[in-house]
Amino acid sequence: MAQSPATYTSGHHASVLRSHTWRTAANSAPYLVPLLRPNMHVLDVGCGPGTITADFSTLVPSGSVVGIDMSEEVLENARAEAIKRGIGNIKFEAEDIEKLRYSDNTFDVAHAHQVLQHVGNPVQALREMQRVVRPDGIVACRDADFGAMTWFPDVPGLSDFIALYQKVARHNGGEPDAGRRIHAWAREAGLKTEKITKTAGTWCFSTKEEVGWWSGMWAERIIKSDFSKQAMGAGLADEEELRRFSEVWKDWGQREDAWFVLVHGEIICRV
User: Which of 55, 65, 87, 271 pairs with 206 at a CA distance of 20 to 30 A?
Assistant: First the structure.
């Protein structure tokens, strides 16, 4: 298991934020949405630019939502999103998931999407999420599993890029195959096995527009986001190799039969 501290592999380059702002409660938290009630108080951990957070606020109109992230820069984007939507029952604060400043039993739900894979000590993060949730409340997490990604056609170099991403993420102190592990981390954090519901969800990019967006995002992200600096800084890739991987994504994205599935592990834990 990864240990603290960890470096955020993705960073907040525009190419990364395009991916993050695409996320909604519908496409990223469908396993949790049916459990939300109008008067609930929700903590959204690692909220990023706040699009999922803002969706939650509309689902708990008599309650409230707090979005937290370690980056004040990205929190400004989240606040702007809330203002644009005219949402009043939401606020955003800078917090460390492993050392939350909230009192015990503050929230009805603590939610984290694509967060535990980037945390140095995901078990401690889950302990904190559990601590701030009231009895019979919910700890909900969803994380991707890079090792379970699958695609067609098998363009030469795409598997090599996934392997490089996994190496960089682990060098940074994270765990890119978190999806298959989050239920075990929850149990280690003290959440009871019989109260953990384990499911899986997917993102599937199959239309010409979806494939173009997904491949273009990665093609840019590889060479312009923090990932490139981290990969080269760790001696795991050089600039020429990263540019080659960028072209691999472009090549794959132009294939008529291109199809990509990203698998997520999901947990609903009753406290």
Answer: 55
Tokens of 114: 């694509």
Q: Where are the alpha helices (DSSP H) in the chain?
A: 14-22, 25-28, 51-59, 72-85, 122-131, 158-171, 182-188, 208-224, 226-233, 239-253
Measured CA distances, 189 to 15, 113, 125, 129 (Å): 34, 18, 8, 10
pLDDT in tens, 192-234: 999 999 999 999 999 999 999 999 999 999 999 999 999 999 9
Name residue 52's amino acid: I
SS3 135: strand
Strand partners, 111: 44, 140
10 Å CB burial of residue 160 (0-12, 13-18, 19+) is: middle
Task: Report which DSSP code applies to 49.
Answer: T
Residue 257 token pair:
């039969």
At 136 the three-state DSSP class reads: strand
Question: Residue 1: what pLDDT?
Answer: 45
From CA 146, how far away is CA 264, in angstroms rounded? 9
Q: What is the per-residue pLDDT across 143-177, written as a single tens digit (0 to 9) for each?
A: 999 999 999 999 999 999 999 999 999 999 999 99
The overall pTM is greater than 0.85:
yes
Angle at 111 between CA 192 and CA 206, to 5 degrees: 110
Q: What tokens does 139 get?
A: 């700890």
Distances (CA, A) of 45 to 42, 201, 205, 268: 10, 19, 26, 15
CA pair distance 134, 109, nearest whole angstrom: 8
